[in-house]
Amino acid sequence: MIYPESALFPEIWPRNVLSGKAVMHGQVIRRKTRDIERYCGMRAFLGEVRARGFHAVQNREQVIVF
Q1: Which of 8, 16, 21, 44 is the most exposed place for a label (fewest CB within 10 A)?
Q2: How is 22-66 classified by DSSP, letter by letter?
Q3: What does the DSSP 8-state code read for residue 4?
Q4: What is residue 11's predicted lDDT score, i.e. its pLDDT?
Q5: Is the pLDDT of residue 51 over 90?
Q6: What is the CA radius of gyration of the chain?
Q7: Nearest 5°: CA angle at 44, between 12 and 47?
């Protein structure tokens, strides 16, 4: 059986987060640190952030991308 691509795969999750409607309109996004670690890992997520030319800061349990 072939399964469709899940949005929760570690390779897909950051791409979906960083290509959403809010990002395309130049808005700031935030995600819980716990979710980033669960779905793809902080190192991979920050690599995607940098590759797209965005910046990220961590404030307690939130990561804010702008």
Answers
A1: 21
A2: HHHTT--EEEEHHHHHHHT-HHHHHHHHHHTT--EEEETTEEEE-
A3: P
A4: 81
A5: yes
A6: 12
A7: 105
Gap between the Cα atoms of 66 and 8, Å rounded:
22
pLDDT of residue 1: 46
Distance CA 48, CA 45 (A): 5
Q: What are phi and psi of 5, to 5 degrees?
A: -60, 125
Q: Where are the domains of the chain?
A: 13-65
The rounded Cα 40 to chain-centroid distance in angstroms is: 8
What end-to-end distance do the CA atoms of the chain give, in Å? Answer: 40
Residue 41 CB partners (closer than 8 Å, separation 6+): 10
Give the residue-averaged pLDDT of 8-36: 88
